[in-house]
């Protein structure tokens, strides 16, 4: 029997705390209700994102899932809440509140939801401690992390202990873009979402490979949001750079060798791109994900996978659910 698992969805507590009042500082995201079924996420007094009760109400989510034929959603925090810029003990509290909420939502609806946690990645000790709590106490199945930490790429030496711990504990990591590169040039036309995020994700993936993280920790399980952004399409160029600049090499083999271990969600907006991902990395490495409940999400989830005509029924079945469960170390 086919099980449809939407790997890429976001959630936030309805009673999300106001850390501006608690700790001061303008960078904390604050949820400002606009009506019984809607709210704005505010940052620095400005609207960062408009959201609906789909973001916090499990019953509303389940209703949407039934209508769109999704059996299970994998829940992860909204990236703006990562708060890597904050003092570690404050960001740890932000993470704990969200992780407790996600864990409780899963506990109340165990057949409908799977939880991913968040950690204060600006401090390795705090991050590992919260990752251990997520996995051992809250029964989370993985951790969502951002593509950079205060401008430091994911191969920064300060993050190595975290990746070592994630590999040792066999914790799947979902890498989601945030605080994108070139922010001063992508303020118009919502280019942060359509150009900035794909570029930021490519930089994160390339850094993990070229910085030697994937070579040092080959059993790391990493999935990139939005089909890996632009990374799959610049991979041949990364290989070319590795070939022509041997004096810069920190890895023994070309980047495409290490990229084979990556996973990608299927949110690419075109069946031809789904096919390209399958041809490049294998159908086993693609997880159906919709970005529910935001405006750029795929409706219905998995539509582009279903419309990728060259895929077999078995390959579609794997992408639509089996791959996500295997990635998350679940039956």
Automatic annotation (TrEMBL):
Its EC number is 4.1.1.45. It comes from the Bacteria. It comes from Brevibacillus panacihumi W25. GO terms for molecular function: aminocarboxymuconate-semialdehyde decarboxylase activity; hydrolase activity; metal ion binding. Pathway: Secondary metabolite metabolism; quinolate metabolism. Belongs to the metallo-dependent hydrolases superfamily. ACMSD family. PANTHER family: 2-AMINO-3-CARBOXYLMUCONATE-6-SEMIALDEHYDE DECARBOXYLASE, 2-AMINO-3-CARBOXYMUCONATE-6-SEMIALDEHYDE DECARBOXYLASE. Residues 5-329 form the Amidohydrolase-related domain. One of its GO terms (cellular component) is cytosol. It is an enzyme of class 4 (lyase). GO terms for biological process: secondary metabolic process. This is 2-amino-3-carboxymuconate-6-semialdehyde decarboxylase. The keyword Lyase applies. The keyword Repeat does not apply.
